[in-house]
Write a structure and sequence with these properties.
Elements: H1 3-17, E1 37-47, E2 59-73, E3 76-89, E4 93-109, E5 117-129, E6 136-150, E7 158-171, E8 177-189, E9 194-207, E10 211-227, E11 230-243, E12 258-267
Length: 268
């Protein structure tokens, strides 16, 4: 094979297998190199949750997450996150600090050298404001995930990831709950800078260990641009179904009919 024909394949392979995440919601099994940092800013807009009609039914929510990640070792990564939410509803308007999260990721198998990359994720968090309406309460959460990543071979532009997780929630003066969830993502590297794909999220929650509370399924496209150590991702999700349904076949009390996430990342 001529070198000129081989070069595009090597370019795609390098882009597909680098430690970069083209998805807005799913995590990769890869971790930062030791001593490296990554700054990430998320803006997530939630739309279509209005129940009823008129001014009193309006709802807009914009979640702001600032995250700094640090490579601890060749297989370990630590991150600190600060969360805020801007509400625009009939009874609340303005920015409210929500809480803080600490996350740890341990890579169990490198996706560049194994058929399936694998990682363990653990997060502890505290939040003082409800994501849905902004009312104040104290909530502690522990979340764990098992992360899978498949790169489809050395010269393939395709990448598949899956996150299988459980979240335990304790609210002061309220009910304890746990949530099971799965996210999946499939991306295709168009060239060195651009990737496109699709993500799907499904979750279900039970309170007091047994009583079903709610569930939802969301699916949508994603696009990613990367230039050197700078990256921008955009994901748009639509709720396919939810329970208990309170707006057609959707559950708009817990999930948005439409959700858009912009993620800006800088590694240094």
């Amino acid at each position: 094979m001529r070198l000129s024909a081989l070069a595009p394949c090597l370019l795609l392979a390098a882009a597909a297998n680098a430690c970069e995440n083209p998805f807005g919601y799913s995590y990769l099994a890869e971790t930062l190199k030791p001593g490296k940092y990554e700054f990430e800013q998320y803006v997530t807009g939630r739309f279509g949750k209005d129940l009823g009609a008129g001014y009193d039914a309006r709802y807009r929510g914009f979640d702001l997450r600032t995250e700094i990640e640090f490579g601890l070792s060749p297989t370990e990564q630590l991150a600190l996150e600060l969360d805020q939410t801007y509400f625009d509803t009939a009874d609340r308007e303005g920015l409210r600090f929500r809480g803080v999260n600490v996350e740890y990721i341990k890579m169990l198998a490198n996706p560049d050298t194994n058929a399936w990359g694998r990682a363990f994720y653990l997060e502890g968090s505290y939040s003082q404001a409800s994501l849905h309406d902004g009312h104040l309460r104290d909530r502690w959460t522990v979340e764990s995930k098992y992360i899978l990543q498949h790169n489809f071979g050395e010269n393939s532009p395709w990448m598949y990831v899956a996150n299988l997780g459980v979240e335990l929630l304790h609210t002061r003066g309220g009910e304890d709950a746990f949530e099971l969830f799965v996210t999946q993502g499939l991306s295709y590297q168009l060239n060195k800078e651009w990737a496109i794909g699709v993500e799907a999220l499904a979750a279900a929650e039970w309170i007091e260990g047994a009583d079903f509370e709610e569930s939802g399924v969301q699916v949508g496209p994603c696009i990613n641009y990367r230039k050197n150590d700078f990256s921008v991702s955009f994901t748009l999700l639509a709720q396919l179904t939810g329970a208990p349904a309170n707006k057609g076949s959707l559950n708009v009390s817990e999930y948005s009919p439409y959700e858009a996430r912009l993620k800006v990342s800088w590694e240094f």
